[in-house]
Write a structure and sequence with these properties.
Layout lengths: L1 H34 L15 H13 L2 H11 L9 H22 L8 H4 L6 H27 L3 H32 L16 H28 L5 H28 L11 H21 L2 H4 L2 H31 L7 H24 L9 H11 L12
Helix pairs in contact: 1-13, 2-4, 2-12, 2-13, 3-4, 3-7, 3-8, 4-6, 4-13, 6-7, 7-8, 8-9, 8-12, 9-10, 9-14, 10-12
Protein backbone atom coordinates (compact mmCIF):
# COMPACT_ATOMS: atom_id res chain seq x y z
CA UNK A 1 0.00 0.00 0.00
CA UNK A 2 2.77 2.45 0.89
CA UNK A 3 4.65 1.62 -2.29
CA UNK A 4 1.56 2.27 -4.41
CA UNK A 5 0.97 5.56 -2.61
CA UNK A 6 4.57 6.68 -3.18
CA UNK A 7 4.29 5.73 -6.84
CA UNK A 8 1.19 7.91 -7.21
CA UNK A 9 2.99 10.79 -5.49
CA UNK A 10 5.96 10.49 -7.86
CA UNK A 11 3.74 10.34 -10.91
CA UNK A 12 1.79 13.41 -9.85
CA UNK A 13 4.76 15.54 -8.78
CA UNK A 14 6.00 16.67 -12.21
CA UNK A 15 2.54 17.54 -13.57
CA UNK A 16 2.09 19.67 -10.44
CA UNK A 17 5.41 21.43 -11.05
CA UNK A 18 4.52 21.98 -14.70
CA UNK A 19 1.14 23.40 -13.71
CA UNK A 20 2.71 25.86 -11.28
CA UNK A 21 5.26 26.96 -13.89
CA UNK A 22 2.55 27.50 -16.50
CA UNK A 23 0.47 29.48 -14.00
CA UNK A 24 3.53 31.64 -13.23
CA UNK A 25 4.10 32.09 -16.96
CA UNK A 26 0.54 33.37 -17.40
CA UNK A 27 0.81 35.81 -14.48
CA UNK A 28 4.17 37.17 -15.65
CA UNK A 29 2.81 37.54 -19.19
CA UNK A 30 0.03 39.77 -17.86
CA UNK A 31 2.55 41.87 -15.90
CA UNK A 32 4.96 42.09 -18.82
CA UNK A 33 2.28 43.28 -21.28
CA UNK A 34 0.60 45.70 -18.89
CA UNK A 35 3.59 47.16 -17.05
CA UNK A 36 6.47 46.63 -19.50
CA UNK A 37 9.83 44.84 -19.41
CA UNK A 38 11.06 46.86 -16.43
CA UNK A 39 8.44 45.30 -14.17
CA UNK A 40 9.61 41.70 -14.72
CA UNK A 41 13.27 41.89 -15.84
CA UNK A 42 16.62 43.34 -14.79
CA UNK A 43 17.36 44.46 -18.35
CA UNK A 44 18.60 47.98 -19.00
CA UNK A 45 19.87 50.21 -21.79
CA UNK A 46 23.41 49.07 -20.92
CA UNK A 47 22.39 45.39 -20.94
CA UNK A 48 19.35 44.98 -23.24
CA UNK A 49 19.81 41.27 -24.07
CA UNK A 50 19.51 38.88 -21.15
CA UNK A 51 18.35 35.37 -20.30
CA UNK A 52 15.44 35.38 -22.75
CA UNK A 53 17.81 36.02 -25.65
CA UNK A 54 20.77 34.00 -24.36
CA UNK A 55 18.83 30.87 -23.40
CA UNK A 56 15.31 30.96 -24.81
CA UNK A 57 16.33 32.06 -28.31
CA UNK A 58 20.02 31.35 -28.91
CA UNK A 59 19.89 27.98 -27.14
CA UNK A 60 16.38 27.11 -28.33
CA UNK A 61 17.27 27.56 -31.99
CA UNK A 62 20.55 25.66 -31.65
CA UNK A 63 19.15 22.71 -29.72
CA UNK A 64 16.51 22.27 -32.43
CA UNK A 65 19.20 21.83 -35.11
CA UNK A 66 18.81 18.06 -34.94
CA UNK A 67 15.70 18.47 -37.09
CA UNK A 68 17.51 19.50 -40.25
CA UNK A 69 20.51 17.24 -39.52
CA UNK A 70 18.47 14.03 -39.20
CA UNK A 71 16.09 15.00 -42.02
CA UNK A 72 19.05 15.54 -44.35
CA UNK A 73 20.56 12.25 -43.21
CA UNK A 74 17.40 10.30 -44.08
CA UNK A 75 16.11 12.10 -47.18
CA UNK A 76 19.24 13.60 -48.77
CA UNK A 77 21.91 11.05 -47.85
CA UNK A 78 19.32 8.23 -48.05
CA UNK A 79 20.47 6.65 -44.79
CA UNK A 80 17.03 5.24 -44.05
CA UNK A 81 18.30 3.33 -41.03
CA UNK A 82 17.81 6.58 -39.11
CA UNK A 83 14.13 6.89 -40.03
CA UNK A 84 12.91 5.54 -36.63
CA UNK A 85 14.29 8.64 -34.87
CA UNK A 86 13.30 11.14 -37.57
CA UNK A 87 9.75 11.96 -36.52
CA UNK A 88 10.43 12.58 -32.79
CA UNK A 89 13.42 14.72 -33.81
CA UNK A 90 11.26 16.79 -36.16
CA UNK A 91 8.69 17.19 -33.39
CA UNK A 92 11.39 18.36 -30.97
CA UNK A 93 12.67 20.88 -33.53
CA UNK A 94 9.19 22.20 -34.33
CA UNK A 95 8.32 22.70 -30.67
CA UNK A 96 11.71 24.32 -30.10
CA UNK A 97 11.13 26.91 -32.82
CA UNK A 98 7.54 27.52 -31.75
CA UNK A 99 8.74 28.27 -28.21
CA UNK A 100 11.49 30.52 -29.57
CA UNK A 101 8.77 32.61 -31.19
CA UNK A 102 6.83 32.74 -27.91
CA UNK A 103 9.99 33.78 -26.07
CA UNK A 104 10.61 36.49 -28.62
CA UNK A 105 7.14 37.88 -27.97
CA UNK A 106 8.16 38.25 -24.32
CA UNK A 107 11.51 39.89 -25.09
CA UNK A 108 10.61 42.36 -27.84
CA UNK A 109 9.98 45.89 -26.64
CA UNK A 110 6.98 46.17 -28.99
CA UNK A 111 5.91 42.59 -29.69
CA UNK A 112 2.83 43.72 -31.60
CA UNK A 113 5.22 44.89 -34.36
CA UNK A 114 6.67 41.42 -34.89
CA UNK A 115 4.94 41.24 -38.29
CA UNK A 116 6.86 44.25 -39.65
CA UNK A 117 9.70 42.26 -41.34
CA UNK A 118 7.09 40.61 -43.54
CA UNK A 119 6.26 43.89 -45.29
CA UNK A 120 9.11 46.25 -44.22
CA UNK A 121 12.14 44.71 -45.90
CA UNK A 122 15.72 45.49 -44.90
CA UNK A 123 17.84 42.82 -46.65
CA UNK A 124 21.09 44.32 -45.28
CA UNK A 125 20.05 43.54 -41.71
CA UNK A 126 21.12 40.29 -40.03
CA UNK A 127 18.01 40.46 -37.84
CA UNK A 128 15.85 40.65 -40.96
CA UNK A 129 17.45 37.50 -42.36
CA UNK A 130 17.13 35.65 -39.05
CA UNK A 131 13.48 36.67 -38.72
CA UNK A 132 12.55 35.46 -42.20
CA UNK A 133 14.50 32.21 -41.85
CA UNK A 134 12.90 31.40 -38.49
CA UNK A 135 9.42 32.09 -39.88
CA UNK A 136 10.00 29.97 -42.97
CA UNK A 137 11.79 27.14 -41.19
CA UNK A 138 9.09 26.89 -38.52
CA UNK A 139 6.59 26.53 -41.36
CA UNK A 140 8.77 23.84 -42.97
CA UNK A 141 9.00 21.92 -39.68
CA UNK A 142 5.21 22.10 -39.29
CA UNK A 143 4.77 20.66 -42.79
CA UNK A 144 7.39 17.97 -42.14
CA UNK A 145 5.52 16.85 -39.02
CA UNK A 146 2.07 17.20 -40.60
CA UNK A 147 2.07 13.58 -41.96
CA UNK A 148 1.84 12.34 -38.35
CA UNK A 149 -1.44 14.26 -37.95
CA UNK A 150 -2.70 13.06 -41.33
CA UNK A 151 -1.90 9.47 -40.39
CA UNK A 152 -3.73 9.86 -37.11
CA UNK A 153 -6.92 10.88 -38.90
CA UNK A 154 -6.31 8.54 -41.89
CA UNK A 155 -6.34 11.28 -44.51
CA UNK A 156 -4.78 9.35 -47.37
CA UNK A 157 -5.00 11.94 -50.17
CA UNK A 158 -3.21 14.80 -48.32
CA UNK A 159 -0.69 12.26 -47.04
CA UNK A 160 0.24 11.32 -50.62
CA UNK A 161 0.70 14.99 -51.47
CA UNK A 162 2.99 15.51 -48.47
CA UNK A 163 5.01 12.47 -49.52
CA UNK A 164 5.64 14.01 -52.93
CA UNK A 165 6.78 17.40 -51.62
CA UNK A 166 8.78 15.99 -48.70
CA UNK A 167 12.19 16.13 -50.50
CA UNK A 168 11.64 19.80 -51.33
CA UNK A 169 10.77 20.56 -47.71
CA UNK A 170 13.93 18.84 -46.49
CA UNK A 171 16.15 20.79 -48.91
CA UNK A 172 14.45 24.06 -47.94
CA UNK A 173 14.87 23.19 -44.27
CA UNK A 174 18.59 22.50 -44.62
CA UNK A 175 19.18 25.79 -46.46
CA UNK A 176 17.11 27.89 -44.08
CA UNK A 177 18.56 26.34 -40.94
CA UNK A 178 22.13 26.75 -42.19
CA UNK A 179 21.50 30.41 -42.92
CA UNK A 180 20.04 31.48 -39.60
CA UNK A 181 22.14 29.22 -37.36
CA UNK A 182 25.22 31.04 -38.62
CA UNK A 183 23.52 34.44 -38.71
CA UNK A 184 22.83 34.27 -34.98
CA UNK A 185 26.60 34.38 -34.56
CA UNK A 186 26.81 37.27 -37.02
CA UNK A 187 24.67 39.36 -34.65
CA UNK A 188 27.54 39.49 -32.18
CA UNK A 189 30.06 40.60 -34.81
CA UNK A 190 28.47 44.02 -34.29
CA UNK A 191 29.91 44.15 -30.75
CA UNK A 192 33.72 43.99 -31.13
CA UNK A 193 34.28 46.25 -28.12
CA UNK A 194 31.53 44.75 -25.95
CA UNK A 195 32.61 41.08 -26.03
CA UNK A 196 35.54 39.52 -24.19
CA UNK A 197 38.32 38.30 -26.56
CA UNK A 198 37.74 34.70 -25.48
CA UNK A 199 34.37 34.81 -27.25
CA UNK A 200 34.51 37.57 -29.84
CA UNK A 201 35.76 36.21 -33.16
CA UNK A 202 35.33 36.78 -36.90
CA UNK A 203 34.53 33.06 -37.00
CA UNK A 204 31.47 33.42 -34.77
CA UNK A 205 29.02 32.57 -37.62
CA UNK A 206 30.96 29.37 -38.41
CA UNK A 207 31.34 28.44 -34.75
CA UNK A 208 27.63 29.00 -34.12
CA UNK A 209 26.70 26.73 -37.01
CA UNK A 210 29.11 23.89 -36.17
CA UNK A 211 28.22 23.97 -32.47
CA UNK A 212 24.51 23.94 -33.37
CA UNK A 213 25.00 20.77 -35.43
CA UNK A 214 26.78 19.14 -32.47
CA UNK A 215 24.04 20.26 -30.08
CA UNK A 216 21.29 19.09 -32.42
CA UNK A 217 22.78 15.60 -32.67
CA UNK A 218 23.28 15.51 -28.90
CA UNK A 219 19.71 16.62 -28.27
CA UNK A 220 18.46 13.79 -30.50
CA UNK A 221 20.22 11.26 -28.26
CA UNK A 222 19.04 12.92 -25.04
CA UNK A 223 15.47 13.14 -26.33
CA UNK A 224 15.55 9.43 -27.23
CA UNK A 225 16.75 8.61 -23.72
CA UNK A 226 13.99 10.59 -22.03
CA UNK A 227 11.40 9.16 -24.42
CA UNK A 228 12.49 5.69 -23.37
CA UNK A 229 12.14 6.64 -19.72
CA UNK A 230 8.80 8.39 -20.13
CA UNK A 231 7.03 6.13 -22.62
CA UNK A 232 8.76 2.79 -22.07
CA UNK A 233 9.66 2.47 -25.74
CA UNK A 234 12.76 0.57 -26.92
CA UNK A 235 15.71 2.88 -27.37
CA UNK A 236 17.48 2.75 -30.73
CA UNK A 237 20.94 2.22 -29.24
CA UNK A 238 22.64 1.12 -32.52
CA UNK A 239 21.41 4.21 -34.36
CA UNK A 240 22.34 6.52 -31.51
CA UNK A 241 25.79 4.92 -31.37
CA UNK A 242 26.34 5.68 -35.06
CA UNK A 243 25.02 9.18 -34.55
CA UNK A 244 27.42 9.69 -31.65
CA UNK A 245 30.38 8.70 -33.80
CA UNK A 246 29.38 11.57 -36.08
CA UNK A 247 29.21 13.80 -33.01
CA UNK A 248 32.89 13.04 -32.32
CA UNK A 249 33.83 14.37 -35.77
CA UNK A 250 31.70 17.50 -35.38
CA UNK A 251 33.07 18.21 -31.90
CA UNK A 252 36.64 17.71 -33.13
CA UNK A 253 36.02 20.15 -35.99
CA UNK A 254 34.52 22.71 -33.60
CA UNK A 255 37.43 22.34 -31.16
CA UNK A 256 40.02 22.72 -33.93
CA UNK A 257 38.32 25.86 -35.27
CA UNK A 258 37.97 27.33 -31.80
CA UNK A 259 41.57 26.74 -30.74
CA UNK A 260 42.97 27.84 -34.10
CA UNK A 261 41.02 31.08 -33.85
CA UNK A 262 42.11 31.74 -30.25
CA UNK A 263 45.76 31.16 -31.11
CA UNK A 264 45.60 33.28 -34.28
CA UNK A 265 44.12 36.21 -32.35
CA UNK A 266 46.43 35.66 -29.35
CA UNK A 267 43.27 35.60 -27.25
CA UNK A 268 44.31 32.85 -24.85
CA UNK A 269 46.45 35.36 -22.97
CA UNK A 270 43.26 37.22 -21.98
CA UNK A 271 42.31 34.22 -19.85
CA UNK A 272 44.88 35.31 -17.23
CA UNK A 273 44.73 36.20 -14.44
CA UNK A 274 42.10 33.55 -13.78
CA UNK A 275 38.68 34.96 -12.92
CA UNK A 276 35.04 33.92 -13.26
CA UNK A 277 35.05 34.44 -17.04
CA UNK A 278 38.18 32.27 -17.36
CA UNK A 279 36.67 29.41 -15.37
CA UNK A 280 33.45 29.57 -17.37
CA UNK A 281 35.49 29.43 -20.57
CA UNK A 282 37.41 26.37 -19.34
CA UNK A 283 34.18 24.69 -18.23
CA UNK A 284 32.64 25.34 -21.64
CA UNK A 285 35.59 24.00 -23.65
CA UNK A 286 36.75 21.10 -21.51
CA UNK A 287 33.47 20.08 -19.91
CA UNK A 288 31.27 20.63 -22.94
CA UNK A 289 33.59 19.70 -25.82
CA UNK A 290 36.78 17.83 -24.89
CA UNK A 291 35.36 15.47 -22.25
CA UNK A 292 32.26 14.35 -24.20
CA UNK A 293 34.32 14.03 -27.38
CA UNK A 294 36.68 11.62 -25.61
CA UNK A 295 33.81 9.70 -24.03
CA UNK A 296 31.88 9.34 -27.28
CA UNK A 297 34.99 8.12 -29.09
CA UNK A 298 35.10 5.13 -26.73
CA UNK A 299 33.10 2.01 -27.81
CA UNK A 300 32.45 1.38 -24.10
CA UNK A 301 30.36 4.56 -23.95
CA UNK A 302 28.44 3.87 -27.16
CA UNK A 303 27.31 0.42 -25.99
CA UNK A 304 25.18 1.84 -23.19
CA UNK A 305 22.11 4.07 -23.62
CA UNK A 306 22.78 5.63 -20.24
CA UNK A 307 26.40 6.44 -20.95
CA UNK A 308 25.47 7.79 -24.37
CA UNK A 309 22.85 10.06 -22.82
CA UNK A 310 25.26 11.30 -20.15
CA UNK A 311 28.02 12.06 -22.66
CA UNK A 312 25.66 13.81 -25.07
CA UNK A 313 24.10 15.62 -22.11
CA UNK A 314 27.52 17.17 -21.52
CA UNK A 315 27.50 18.38 -25.12
CA UNK A 316 24.10 20.00 -24.56
CA UNK A 317 25.26 21.67 -21.34
CA UNK A 318 28.47 22.86 -23.02
CA UNK A 319 26.45 24.32 -25.88
CA UNK A 320 24.11 26.15 -23.48
CA UNK A 321 27.10 27.48 -21.56
CA UNK A 322 28.71 28.74 -24.77
CA UNK A 323 25.60 30.63 -25.81
CA UNK A 324 25.18 32.14 -22.34
CA UNK A 325 28.86 33.03 -22.22
CA UNK A 326 28.64 34.84 -25.56
CA UNK A 327 25.44 36.71 -24.70
CA UNK A 328 26.12 37.43 -21.02
CA UNK A 329 29.56 36.53 -19.63
CA UNK A 330 31.50 38.06 -22.52
CA UNK A 331 29.52 41.31 -22.30
CA UNK A 332 29.94 41.60 -18.53
CA UNK A 333 33.69 40.85 -18.72
CA UNK A 334 34.28 43.41 -21.47
CA UNK A 335 32.03 46.25 -20.28
CA UNK A 336 31.90 45.81 -16.50
CA UNK A 337 28.09 46.04 -16.59
CA UNK A 338 26.54 43.50 -14.22
CA UNK A 339 23.35 41.64 -15.00
CA UNK A 340 21.53 39.08 -12.87
CA UNK A 341 18.23 37.81 -14.28
CA UNK A 342 15.19 38.62 -12.17
CA UNK A 343 13.07 35.81 -10.78
CA UNK A 344 10.31 36.35 -13.38
CA UNK A 345 12.91 35.89 -16.13
CA UNK A 346 13.83 32.47 -14.72
CA UNK A 347 10.17 31.55 -14.29
CA UNK A 348 9.34 32.45 -17.89
CA UNK A 349 12.23 30.34 -19.15
CA UNK A 350 11.25 27.36 -16.99
CA UNK A 351 7.60 27.84 -17.94
CA UNK A 352 8.45 27.68 -21.65
CA UNK A 353 10.50 24.51 -21.08
CA UNK A 354 7.57 22.97 -19.18
CA UNK A 355 5.19 23.98 -21.97
CA UNK A 356 7.42 22.34 -24.56
CA UNK A 357 7.70 19.10 -22.57
CA UNK A 358 3.93 18.92 -22.04
CA UNK A 359 3.33 19.53 -25.75
CA UNK A 360 5.83 16.81 -26.65
CA UNK A 361 4.19 14.32 -24.28
CA UNK A 362 0.73 15.17 -25.60
CA UNK A 363 1.86 14.71 -29.22
CA UNK A 364 3.45 11.37 -28.38
CA UNK A 365 0.27 10.27 -26.60
CA UNK A 366 -2.19 11.07 -29.39
CA UNK A 367 -0.13 10.99 -32.61
CA UNK A 368 2.01 8.27 -34.25
CA UNK A 369 5.32 9.90 -33.35
CA UNK A 370 7.27 6.72 -32.64
CA UNK A 371 7.49 3.82 -35.10
CA UNK A 372 6.39 0.31 -34.33
CA UNK A 373 8.91 -2.24 -33.09
CA UNK A 374 11.91 -2.44 -35.38
CA UNK A 375 11.91 -5.14 -38.04
CA UNK A 376 14.07 -8.05 -37.01
CA UNK A 377 16.45 -8.47 -39.93
CA UNK A 378 16.90 -4.75 -40.59
CA UNK A 379 17.43 -3.98 -36.91
CA UNK A 380 20.07 -6.69 -36.59
CA UNK A 381 21.85 -5.44 -39.71
CA UNK A 382 21.97 -1.91 -38.31
CA UNK A 383 23.21 -3.27 -34.99
CA UNK A 384 26.00 -5.22 -36.64
CA UNK A 385 27.19 -2.18 -38.60
CA UNK A 386 27.23 -0.10 -35.41
CA UNK A 387 29.38 -2.65 -33.60
CA UNK A 388 26.83 -3.06 -30.80
CA UNK A 389 25.78 -6.53 -29.57
CA UNK A 390 22.50 -7.79 -31.05
CA UNK A 391 19.64 -8.21 -28.61
CA UNK A 392 16.09 -9.34 -29.37
CA UNK A 393 14.40 -7.58 -26.46
CA UNK A 394 14.51 -3.83 -25.72
CA UNK A 395 17.83 -2.99 -24.14
CA UNK A 396 17.85 -2.37 -20.44
CA UNK A 397 19.62 0.53 -18.85
CA UNK A 398 23.32 -0.20 -18.56
Amino acid sequence: MNARYLTRVRVGFWPLVAGLLLASLAVIAVLRYTKGLGAVTNLSDDFPWGLWIGFDILCGVGLAAGGFAIAATVHVLHLHDFKPILRPTILTAFLGYALVIVALLFDLGKPWNIWHPIVMWNPRSVMFEVGWCVMLYTTVLFLEFLPAVLERFRLAAPLRVMGKISPLLVIAGVILSTLHQSSLGSLFLLLPHKLHPLWYSPLLPVLFFVSAVAAGLAMTVVESWFSRRAFGRPIETPLLARLSRTSVVVLALYLALRLRDLVARDALASMFPLNLASWLFLAEVFGGVVLPMVLLAMPWTRRSPRRLALAQGLVVLGFILHRLNVSTTAVEAATGVRYLPALPEFLVTMGLVALGMLAFCAACEYLPVFPQAARGAESKAVTARAGVPVVDAPQTLA
